[in-house]
Amino acid sequence: MMQETARDAREPIARIVQAIRERQRFVLSSHARPDGDSIGAQLALAHALERLGKTVRIVNHDEPPPSLQSIPGAETIDVAGAVTGQYDAAIILECSSLDRTEVAGLDRYFLVNIDHHAGNRLYGALNWYDPSAAACAEMVYDLVAALGVPLTPPIAVPLYAGILTDTGSFRHANITRRTFDICSHVAASGVDVAGVAAGIYQSGTIGRLRLTAALVDTMRLEARDRIALLHVDDALLRDTGCPPDDMDGLINLPLSAREVQAVIMIKTLDGTTRVSLRSKGEVDVRSVAASFGGGGHRNAAGFSIDEGPEAESRIVAAVAAAVESAAGGPAAASESPTASGPTPA
Ligand code: 5GP
Ligand code: MN
């Protein structure tokens, strides 16, 4: 596999634009269990490529969750565990390592890697990696402009969906002035931005609403209310009627309380255990996830574990250490987090 050179790093967009111009058939993919940014980045780029007369197919390991099915074009995404067709390049968006696609066969193509996750593995022949981007959709916005494709609603809607969801509805610390510059152009393109938000946040299932109640009801607070612990398993989903892919965002619920600095959600579904972490401000849950073999961003990260409940206390201890270090160390931890810690995002 070719690695990025210094020259690639200087002009990653120009090299990707050139690679796209020289090729005709593209397959796009992203990480398994796609979120708003993976769906948004892929659909926007797919539409831009089609505008250039290219042939495009999006292949993901999992279907878009119900909350993202309102994004125009989501129904065109193919769900498969492998890619076998004839393509001139595979463009992987919003995915820190190729195995996270859970789609086999992508490594047979000329690989373009476009991502914003810290710790991206630079697995492409061309790598464009920008951890300062609030969403991969911000990077696709630049690429679409560099390709000379106008920002029409079929491109602007998925881009906005990616930014809206990856910033936690404009709450995360990853937001920059640039985020609003792009959103300003999105609004100018004629997109009904409130409609996009309603499609994503007001179109869930009743099961999701019931699960929300159950999660809050069974929530455990640790580390003097600074950490909230949520558990989901097959029985809870069955009892509440929530589809497994309609849980997106529920992990953020405990962050509404002033005391809570971090949330741990442990999902034991279909015999596997996945852990999601969320945090406020300077509390770095990415490094916690990385220490368990996962990754993500400072305020949103995740990992998988093979162990059972015995891992739980180690996870809580690691997150508690991250909370304490953001608050200025164990000594400061006895004070109020808002008095001694950095301003929450
Ligand atoms: P979520 O909790 O929504 O599954 O993931 C939150 C963030 O952490 C996302 O940016 C996601 O890509 C990242 N993430 C989740 N699980 C893993 C993992 O197992 N490995 C890596 N590298 N990143 C992960
Ligand atoms: Mn993202």
Overview in brief:
The chain has 345 residues and is α/β, with parallel strands linked by helices.
What does this entry look like structurally?
There is one protein chain. With 345 residues, the protein is of the alpha/beta class. The chain has 2 domains: 6-201, inorganic pyrophosphatase (n-terminal core); 206-340, Diaminopimelate Epimerase, Chain A, domain 1, CATH 3.10.310.30. It contains 12 helices and 12 strands. The protein has helices at residues 6-10, 12-21, 36-51, 136-146, 153-166, 177-188, 193-201, 206-218, 234-240, 285-291, 311-326, 337-340, and strands at 25-29, 55-60, 78-79, 89-93, 111-115, 126-129, 220-222, 227-233, 262-269, 272-279, 295-297, 300-305. The strands form 2 sheets. A 6-stranded parallel β-sheet has the order 3-2-1-4-5-6. Strands 7-8-9-10-12-11 form a 6-stranded mixed β-sheet. The longest helix has 16 residues, at 36-51. The radius of gyration is 20 Å and the shape is globular. The structure holds guanosine-5'-monophosphate and manganese (II) ion.
